[in-house]
Amino acid sequence: MKILKKSNKLIFSYVIGRFSKKVGEKFQHFPIDSWQKDLTIAKKFGFNGVEWIISDYSNPIFNETFLNEIKKHLLKKKLKISSISLDLIMAEPLHNMPKTNLEWLIARIKLIQKKFEIKRITVPIEEGARFKNKKEKKESIKKLSFILKKLSQNSKIAIETDISPKKLVDFLKSKNFQKLGLLVDLGNVRANGYKINEYFNNFKNRIYGFHIKYRNKNHGKSNIIPREFKELEELKKNIGSFNNLQDITFQTFRSEKNYINDMKKSIKSFNEIFSK
User: Fold this and answer.
1) Torsions phi, psi of 252, nearest 5?
2) Which residues contact 139 (CB under 8 A, 6 or more apart)?
3) Are 235 and 210 in contact (CB under 8 A)?
4) Which residues are CB-neighbours of 275 under 8 A, at least 6 positions away?
5) The domain containing residue 94 runs over which residues?
6) How far apart are CA 50 and CA 211, in angstroms?
7) Between the CA atoms of 215, 212, 61 and 155, what dihedral angle is there, to the nearest 10 degrees?
8) Considering the chain, what percentage of its residues have pLDDT values greater than 90?
9) Are 148 and 175 in contact (CB under 8 A)?
């Protein structure tokens, strides 16, 4: 089962690790011992991009020798790194991150930008990485502004957030955030009880990427994409209206052992919805 591509401009990507055994108890963590095999399987599914997740400071992409090896594997598989997700911020939120750690991280990402054309870099401002008071918000804005200043020349910078659409309008009004965009996760929008069309109407030109995922309402768990998925159907209707959209990335449900079949089922439902 291959993904149905409806656009030559968009990159259809997946979150690396979806074709690997989980790392310890973590369902989403960089597959340090199997990333090469992960890329091989992804290509068979028809993906042309990969979202490279950085789960901690020891990711191989930070090492110059491995950086060259990664580039070699990607060229062989005809895949691109469509985006980088700074997942490590989930454990070390911006408002708590020491400045030296952030400076180190930015310096390494600049080296990556010299090797690859990275369309999108995403900073999580959600769940445990979301600010909870004015002090944390002020520090998060300061650090986020610093990231934009240093990295936005060569990549689009986005946040993935569970801030409500109404509050997000105000948050993005900051003069420092004119270049800041959004990664919109369809499953999280649904689970949080938000309306997907609020994102389309308010942030049409600031959506840089979509995560394809299905979650049940009322903060429900992730599941295989069903044949009826309202948020995905709305995306299909509006897909041509996002001027700065870079990629559609599958962050779909994965079980512990049957993750390859899980992806096949999700892609089948995705294709059925997008071909209507």
Assistant:
1) -75, 165
2) 94, 95, 131
3) yes
4) 4
5) 11-274
6) 12
7) -120
8) 91
9) no
Collapse the DSSP code of 178 into the 3-class scheme (helix H, G, I; strand E, B; otherwise coil) and give the result.
coil
In 10 A of CB 99, how many CB atoms? 10
Residue 4 resides in a domain: no
Enclosing H/E stretch for 179? none
How far is Cα 71 from Cα 39, in angstroms, rounded to an integer?
12
Q: Domain for residue 189, yes or no? A: yes
Give the relative orientation of helices 230-238 and 196-203 as an angle to the nearest 10 degrees: 30
- Whether 110 and 102 have beta carbons less than 8 Å apart is answered as no
Number of structural domains in the chain = 1
Residue 26 has pLDDT above 90, yes or no: no
Query: What CA–CA distance (Å, rounded) separates 178 from 44?
Result: 38
**Residue 196 within a domain:** yes
CATH of residue 15's domain is 3.20.20.150
Q: Per residue, what are the HEC states of 30-53?
A: CCCCCHHHHHHHHHHCCCCEEEEE
Query: pTM to 2 decimals?
Result: 0.95
Collapse the DSSP code of 156 into the 3-class scheme (helix H, G, I; strand E, B; otherwise coil) and give the result: strand
Confidence of residue 6 (pLDDT cuts 50, 70, 90): low
**Residue of 81, 87, 82 whose CA lies nearest to 28:** 87
